[in-house]
Amino acid sequence: MKNQVILFCLVCIATIITPSLSYEFENEENFDCEVLMKNERLVKGLADCLTSDELECGNVMFSQVKKYAPEILETVCAKCTDQQKATFKKCTNLFMQSHHDDYEAIMKKMDPENKFRGPLEAFLAEP
């Protein structure tokens, strides 16, 4: 279940960057963000991690997500594969709907000047 958090964090966004021009995710083929959304403890842990000032979050995966989330936000998942983009859209939209206040807090923390919010939300609205 914890490995599933990595892709969800693309909530905000979740990745492990490799030297290539793509992202590599652990257990990507088994990831189900709908299951993750039902685990309030994990969702709260992720939201707390992404909004805290500490780089390390006590959870290695959350810390990795936090480290790379700014690039993903700024580039609107430019290095993502088509499948990763689809998963990113689905998970982020689910998170926005079910945990709107947490989404807003994460966006305020990661994009305080709202530079990337417009492009991100336009991307999320695409079919």
TrEMBL record:
InterPro entries: A10/PebIII, OS_D_A10/PebIII_sf
Keywords: Signal
Gene3D superfamilies to which the protein is assigned, alphabetical: Insect odorant-binding protein A10/Ejaculatory bulb-specific protein 3
Signal peptide location: 1-22
Taxonomy, superkingdom: Eukaryota
Pfam families the UniProt entry points to: OS-D
Protein known as: Chemosensory protein 12
Keyword Signal set for record: yes
